[in-house]
Amino acid sequence: MIELFSWDKQAASLYKEAQGYMKVLEGHLVKPSRFDNALLFNISVMSLEKLLASLLSYYETEPEHHTPGAMFREASKYDNGLTENMRNTAIFMQKFEAICSFDVKAYKTPENEELLKIIHGLIEIRNHVIDVLKETI
Predict the structure, then answer these.
(1) CATH number, domain with residue 83
(2) Which among 53, 28, 33 has a CA at the least distance from the CA of 129?
(3) How far apart are CA 124 and CA 37, in angstroms?
(4) Distances in whole angstroms, Cα of residue 28 to Cα of each of 33, 46, 136
(5) Considering the domain boundaries, does residue 1 fall inside one?
(6) What is the tally of structural domains in the chain?
(7) How far is C-alpha 19 from the geometric centre of its chain's CA atoms?
């Protein structure tokens, strides 16, 4: 039997992926990870993408962009509970990327304090997504 597409199932699946990434990041808050900051930042970006994609799926839409700021802006059109502090986390994360830039500049790896700021911001976003998806996940 062919299973029909379900926005709820997609939202739950994307959230589950995000939570797997968040587990690594939250573990780093308890005991410093064996991973370097570059890898932890990449895990952070994947987590944010999955969290926002799960939120967008809950609202039965797909993300049109892939950068942290653009995805957050898009999710904000549907979800009034996303805060300015959460937006600042997405914008802060974007400062470390050079995706789609015409300038030739290298990626910047966050310092320890910057990475901790990102992780704490992601926890806030994740907690909001849990609140929204609570009956789906």
Answers:
(1) 1.20.120.330
(2) 53
(3) 20
(4) 5, 16, 28
(5) no
(6) 1
(7) 10
Q: Which helix (H) or strand (E) holds 125?
A: helix 112-133
Q: What confidence tens digit (pLDDT) does each residue in 46-78 have?
A: 999 999 999 999 999 998 988 899 999 999 999
Give the Cα separation of 42 and 125 in Å (integer).
Answer: 17
pLDDT in tens, 7-27: 999 999 999 999 999 999 999
Is-contact 15 129, C-beta < 8 A?
A: yes
Residue 2 in any domain: the answer is no
Residue appearing with tokens 């957050």: 72
Q: Which residue in 49, 36, 51, 46 sits closest to 115, CA to CA?
A: 36
Residue 106: what residue type? Answer: A
d(CA 90, CA 108): 15
Q: Tokens 């959230």 map to which residue?
A: 15
Residue 44 to residue 52: CA distance in whole angstroms: 12
